[in-house]
Specification:
heterodimer; A: alpha+beta; Cyclin A, domain 1; SH3 type barrels; 2 domains; 5-stranded antiparallel sheet; 8 helices; globular; B: mainly alpha; Nitrile Hydratase, Chain A; two-stranded parallel ribbon; two-stranded parallel sheet; 4 strands; about 45% helix; disordered N terminus
Chain lengths: ~220, ~210
């Protein structure tokens, strides 16, 4: 979707402001928000693509006005309610009022090291051969889906070159919406800065994205 | 709560969420209470997650990868071919490091990593991302004005240096291998790793020289 998260090339956000000796967290609640988000992810009720979609569904003014862990927390609230683990009233009150859904697993302290070390690999074998090869010129499709996609707006309807075939991976545009993993080949596609940004672009700039096969068409 | 407002309030990209801090403290506390009452989370697991990312998983992992790549051509080749396996051989695996790719700076080309869509970042080798990496200013401009962004990190590259920006739009996580600095011959891997900052592995800095690292 063309949500507030799709920031590449937008203007007006001011300079980047690196902090000297920046801490990992700026408040105690940020630590808890990280841990709650990872713990709820361990339920196995939703996947990373649905999580990302929940975040990009936050209304633009709220998204752009929120810190990152605030965005995460809003998305977790939404997911807990959507999947029946908590009601809106419980989330408002901060107390349990009914049983709710029981998750496949609850992340206990002694499971944390193993869960973090395992991660969530999303490569999936495919029987079909990749449609494109290294060196092929491809055009990204021009589409504006209302659902989740990982093709940024700035890289739509642009001509680039396939630099690498990266393997086959879960397709987020389907997986975010419960339509299955439907793996596809993923390619690193390189664009000249001028192709993307036009007149005035830095002539020494190239930008690459990792694009699922259905985002691309042959030139 | 000792870290509240411990940062520089003049940083413009923070002021807008400072107002929410007290709200968010209450809100997240309520959420943790609710989920604990329902048996859905274990507060000790949250402690363990935070402890892991505060003390175990951080940029020193990535610096070891870079130092080994500088010291061992076979390892560097392995990194180019299969970064996931090469990095795993040093014990750095797991969440947000499941699929890794290493990109090497050269005298001609400088690499810069961003995720314009969210905050994809190689946790297994760099730990949790800094606030600026997740903030709109960096995510919006890294792809359109990388030289301007680099200047804000006090890094000015020659005009003839090509800039290659990698937008992390899929599940591959990138690690920049900076160029080995001059006058670092004879240094062992531990000393070399001290020359490698987190920013150098994102591409917003170069490796330190042995003089500037002192």
């Amino acid at each position: 979707m063309n949500g507030p998260h799709d920031l590449g090339g937008q203007m007006g956000f001011g300079p980047v402001a690196p902090e000297p000796n920046e801490p990992y967290f700026h408040a105690e609640w940020e630590k808890r928000a990280l841990g709650i988000t990872l713990s709820c992810g361990a339920f196995g009720a939703w996947n990373i693509d649905e999580s990302r979609h929940a975040r990009e569904n936050i209304p633009p003014a709220d998204y752009l006005g929120a810190s990152y862990y605030e965005i995460w927390t809003r998305a977790v609230d939404m997911l807990l309610e959507r999947h029946g683990f908590a009601t809106a009233e419980e989330l408002r009150s901060g107390h349990a009022l009914e049983q709710g859904r029981v998750p496949k697993r609850v992340l206990k302290a002694d499971m944390v090291d193993g869960a973090l070390a395992k991660g969530g690999p999303c490569d999936r074998p495919l029987d079909t051969a990749p449609l494109f090869a290294v060196g092929d010129h491809v055009r990204t499709k021009n589409f504006n889906p209302t659902g989740h996609t990982r093709l940024p707006r700035y890289a739509r309807a642009k001509i680039g070159v396939v630099e690498a075939v990266q393997g086959s991976f879960v397709f987020p545009d389907d997986n975010a919406h419960g339509r299955g993993e439907n793996p596809q080949w993923v390619y690193t596609v390189v664009f000249d800065g001028v192709e993307i940004w036009g007149d005035g672009a830095d002539p020494s700039l190239t930008v690459s994205i990792d694009a699922w096969e259905s985002y691309l068409e042959r030139m | 709560m000792s870290h509240d407002h411990s940062h520089d309030d003049d940083d413009h990209h923070h002021h807008h969420h400072d107002n929410h801090y007290s709200d968010m403290q209450a809100r997240v506390k309520a959420l943790e209470t609710l989920l604990t009452e329902k048996g859905l989370i274990d507060p000790a697991a949250i402690d363990r997650i935070v402890e892991t990312y505060e003390t175990k998983v951080g940029p020193r992992n990535g610096a070891q990868v870079v130092a080994k790549a500088w010291s061992d051509p076979n390892f560097a080749d392995w990194l180019r071919r299969d970064a996931t396996a090469a990095i795993a051989s040093l014990g750095f695996t797991g969440r947000q490091g499941e699929h890794m790719r290493a990109v090497f700076n050269t005298p001609e080309t400088h690499n810069l990593i961003v995720c314009t869509l969210c905050s994809c970042y190689p946790w297994a080798v760099l730990g949790l991302p800094p606030v600026w990496y997740k903030a709109p200013a960096y995510r919006s401009r890294a792809v359109i004005d990388p030289r301007g962004v680099l200047a804000e990190f006090d890094l000015t590259l020659p005009q003839e240096t090509k800039i290659r920006v990698w937008d992390s739009t899929a599940e591959l996580r990138y690690l920049v291998i900076p160029e080995r600095p001059a006058a670092s011959e004879g240094m062992d891997e531990a000393a070399l790793a001290d020359l490698v900052s987190r920013d150098a592995m994102i591409g917003t800095a170069l490796a330190k020289t042995p003089e500037t690292a002192l």
